[in-house]
Amino acid sequence: MADTYRRHAHAMDAEEVLRLRRTTPAAEAAVHLNHASASLADQSVFDAQQRYLALEASVGPHRAYERVAEALEALPEALGALVGVHAGQVALTESASRGWALALGAVSRERPLQVFVGPQEWGGNVMNVIAHPRASLRRVDGRPGACWKTLIDEALTRRDPRAIPVVSLPLIGAASGEIHALAGVASVVHEAGGWLFVDASQAVGQMPVDATALGADVLVFPSRKWLRGPRGIGVLCLSPRALTQFETPALVDVFGAGLRCDVHATPTLAVDDTARRFQIYEHNPGLRLGLLAAIGIVEAIGVERIHARSASLIGRLHGHLRESASVVWSDAPQSGMLCAVFRDATARYLADGLRDVGVNVACVARRYAPLSDQGDADGNVLRISAHALTREGEIDEVADRLHRILTRREGARAGAR
């Protein structure tokens, strides 16, 4: 596989992209430019899941699990290697948001929390701060290209001295595509006695990520986005400091905890000292085997090469959009994502119009980025995201389709006047 994708060598060429598309069953079903929501999985990901289902159908669930248990043990190690942590720091959850919420709930059972977030904080994380009985939310304003170390340092000088500070920032904004400069943030957070949460949902699989170098106490990401893995799996990574000092999670079961039992005494809880305590026993082994296969594809191609190609493709699209007078706001391309707001056409209208002609993009609704400074009349943003398997022709096609939809819209409005 490494030879197939010329691992970590040169930029991806047309032949390599074609080979990648040939092993992606849905690659020709539509022009898929919505990888930031859910990418297209490689055939090997489906094969891994189907092999497990066939095994379970033939020998039953328990015997099937026994036969794949050794392979499953490789997943935390593979995930840890992907983001610069040890296997014992990795827990698998149902989603990135669930992992984030579990970690927040374990910071402290008694003291209040003051959670500092930026404009691009994911809506699910914001919801969990609001739902937390002892947490308060504080927004830190940051313009594109901001130095987050300086902004957070200033914000923490005005923190509530009674509360534990928690700083949560995305590595890439889900409604902007901006790569946030987080270097040095951990040092000021830790100096204030706080915790740094990093949402890497839009980064892992698209660009190199090192949780240890970032100083992240908590780092989360899903399988289904840039890793091109199955839906229904989230990853929670915890620093050694967090594993030592965090409380027992609100939800534990037999996978990450046990009971010390004596016939004459009340049982006592014995919790695992690794990230296992944040993980539950019940899961679908086929999904995890599929994720392991997806990681293999990322490693074979090289995440640096994926980032270079994705960002180059989005740069190409940005060049097309710069020529359009209909664009009110568009982020400068840094990642494989472009987010934009258009004059006289909402993100929902444009996303629906593109879907009708076989192009998949995303309308990022306000509830997903509730603190964002950008949005159309409905508060939404159009997001277009390319991956390594995207063709240059698909980028040109979406630009042309957008132009046609906008021209038709402007003509209809002019006629109505």
Describe this structure as you would to a colleague.
It comes from Pandoraea captiosa. The radius of gyration is 22 Å and the shape is globular. Helix content is 40%, strand content 17%. With 417 residues, it is of the alpha/beta class. 47% of the residues are buried.
Notable features of this structure?
417 residues; alpha/beta; Aspartate Aminotransferase, domain 1; Aspartate Aminotransferase, domain 2; 2 domains; seven-stranded mixed β-sheet; four-stranded antiparallel β-sheet; 14 helices; 15 strands; 40% helix; globular; disordered N terminus
CATH topology of the largest domain, by name, is Aspartate Aminotransferase, domain 2
Report how far the terminal alpha carbons are from each other.
Answer: 59 Å
Gross CATH architecture of the largest domain:
3-Layer(aba) Sandwich
> Could you say which structural class the secondary elements and strand pairing correspond to?
alpha/beta
State mean pLDDT (0 to 100 scale): 94
Reconstruct the topology from this structure:
Layout: H1 14-22, E1 31-32, H2 43-59, H3 61-72, H4 74-83, E2 90-93, H5 96-105, E3 113-117, H6 123-131, E4 135-139, H7 148-156, E5 164-170, H8 185-191, E6 195-199, H9 211-214, E7 218-222, E8 234-238, H10 240-245, E9 257-262, E10 265-271, H11 285-301, H12 303-322, E11 327-330, E12 337-342, H13 347-356, E13 359-360, E14 362-364, E15 381-385, H14 392-416
Helix pairs in contact: 2-3, 2-11, 3-11, 4-11, 5-6, 7-8, 12-14
